[in-house]
Amino acid sequence: MNITGILNNVFRPQKTLKETCIKLYNTLALPVLLYGGETWTVKARDARRITAAGMKYMRTAGYTRTDYNTNTQIAKELKKTPILEKLLECKRNRIQHVNRKPRNRLTRAMKYYYPTGRRNHGRPLKRLLDK
What we know:
By secondary structure, the protein is mostly helical. The protein has one domain. The protein contains six helices and no strands. The longest helix has 18 residues. The chain is elongated, with a radius of gyration of 21 Å.
């Protein structure tokens, strides 16, 4: 999640306007942070890391840690929804998309798949060819 370091070298936050930083956030940072997010199982640690990466870039719009602004204050001033809400929205859209598909499609069938049988005892196979 080193997106802010790369972008800060290209676009100096001191010289760019807030509107430009917001546009860069929408076009560069959000797609990188949310790529493939509709299939993730988001745990508490992952949620903290995603939120921290998004807020780190939002703070480049002219906010510093010494300003003592909370993340919610900054998001409200920049009129941005929290990144976890966008992630949950992507997940909801994906589920609705799968539900609209016919029942014979693989993605819809995999939603209700439950494996039968039992696993082998012992160490898992290292390779597919270890049978």
